[in-house]
Amino acid sequence: MNQIKETIASTVAEILANDALPAETLRDFFDTPPDPAMGDIALACFKLSKLLRKSPMVIASDLSSALAAKPIPGVAKVENAGGYLNFFLADSYRVSLLAEMLRQGENYGSNEIGKGKTMVIDYSSPNIAKRFHIGHLGTTIIGNSIKLIHRFSGYDTVGINYLGDWGTQYGKLVVSFKKWGDEEVIRREGIEELNRLYVLFGTKAEEDPPLNDEARKEFALLEAGDEENLRLWRLFKEISLKEYMKTYELLGVSFDSFNGESFYSDKMPAVVEELKEKNLLKIDDGASLVDLEAYNMPPCLILKRDGSSLYPTRDIAAALWRKKEYAFDKCIYVTSAGQSLHFAQWFKVVGLMGYDWEDQLVHVPYGTFSINGEKIASRTGNVVLLDDLFQEAIEKAGAIIEEKNPGLENKEEIAKDVGVGAVIFNSLSANRIKDVNFNWSEALNFDGNTGPYAQYTYARACSILNKSEAFTCPESGTLCDEEKALITTLALFPERIVRALNEYEPSIITRFALDLCQSFNRFYNACPIRSAEKEEKAIRLSLCQAVKNVLGCALHLIGLRTPEKI
Fold first, then answer.
1. CATH of the domain at 34
2. For residues 495 and 502, is the Cβ–Cβ distance under 8 A?
3. Does 565 score more than 70 pLDDT?
C-alpha cells in the first residue's frame, strides 16, 4: 500500500506544482476511509486549504478533474466527496499486492528502519525472593512485544532483566532467615518460603522496630563482602530465578542479560565522583542532590544523608555501563506510569553530565492492572499471583476447548496456549497507558475481540489450507467486495508495524489483528472456496495463506502462540 500512496502523492504534487507541498508532505495527508464504499485511500483536502488559499471542496474538484486526464496506474477511479478525494484501487493492483505478500512470506511487514542499530530494553525486573504478581505482567509483556517489534524492524535487540537484587530488603530477608528460617525448607519450598520469611519480617518489625536496624547491619555486611551473607544472597537469587524462568517460559519471554542492581553496586561511586567533578552535586540537609528547578522538576537525589545510594544513582551507573557495553542507539525502560518523574529526572542528569545521548533514553509508561476491578494489594503478601492467574486461565480455556472440540489432540498444550494468550491479548488490547481490568468472561470469549478469537481465526485459515490442493496466486483477477476489503486490510500491516514501533504501542498490532480476523471471517462466510472456479479458488486460497502468514506474525509480535487446531 505504501508504493501506491507514493505514486498518488507524486502525481498530485506534480499537478499542484507547489514547493510547499512536495510528495513527501502529501504522503502524510492520506487517510484510510472508515467504509470501503468510500474508497481505499483518502486525501483530506482540508489540510491543503490554507496553503493553496482555496476551499477544500474547490481543491478536491480541481484535483479530480486533473486526475481524470492523468490516470494513475493501479487506481481504478477517483471520486470527489465533500472536500475529500477518494481513490479506489484496481482489482489487478490488489491481486498483485496479494501475490507480493505471498512472495515475501513471513517477512511481509518487516522493514529495515533499525538496520545497523542497537536497541536495549529494560523490562520485567522483579525483586528477587518475591513471587510474580499481576503488577509484573505489564512491564513483562509490553517490553517483550516492543522488543519483538524492534527486531522485526531490523534492530539488533538486547533484552535486559534488571533484577531488584540489592538493598536493605535483603538485609531484612537475612535477619528473617537467621531467626525463623531453615535452609532445608527454603531449598524444598523455594520462593514460597522466601516470600513467607519476607512477609514475616514485616509483621515482626511492626512489633519490634529495632529489627530494622538489624536488617541495615546485615545488608552492610553483605555490601562489605561477608561470606555467609553473600552465600545466602546467592541462594535467594538462584531460587528466585529458577521460579521466574518457569513464568518466562510459559509466556515465551527471554532475556539477553540478568544484570541486576547488584551488578552496578561497585560502579556507583564513579558516578558520584563525576557529578562532583562537574559541579552538579549540591548538599541539602546532608543529602547529595542535583538541582533540577530550572527544568521544572524536583531535585534528583543521589545520596542519602548516611551516604548510601538511591535508585537514580544506580540507574545512571547502569545507563553509562550499557552505553559503553552495547553502544546502543536507543535504551528503553518499561515501567508503570508512576515512575515517569523518576526517569525524567535522571535522564536530565545524564544530559547535564555532558552526554549527548540523553535523547536516546526512552521511558515507556503503562497503566495499572487489576482483576475484575480489584487492584493488587501491598506488602502484606495478599496479591494476585501470576502463577495462579495463568493456571486459572489454562483451566478455563481447557474446559471451553473440551466442550467445543472434545476429540482434539494435545488439548492440554493448546489450553495452555489459549489460556496464556487470553491474558496477554486482553492486557495488550487497549493503549498501554490505560488501566487494564482483566475479566474472565470477556478475555476467554471465542466470539469476542479476544485472544482465543484471534487464535481460532488463525486455526481456521490453517484448516482450510491443510485440506486444500496446491495452488499458485494469479497475477490478476476479478474480486468481490469481501476479497477487496481483506486485501486492503492485509496491505495495512507494514504501516501498522511502523506506527507500533514509533509509538512503542503493542495495542496497534493487537487492534490490527482483530481487524484482520473480522475481515477474514466476513470473507470466509461470503466466499465459498471448495466450489469456486479454478482462478477464483486460487485467489481465495492465496488470501487464506496471506492471512495465516500475517495474522501469525501479528500474534507472535504481541507474544501469543498460534496453534493450528483449536
1. 3.30.1360.70
2. no
3. yes
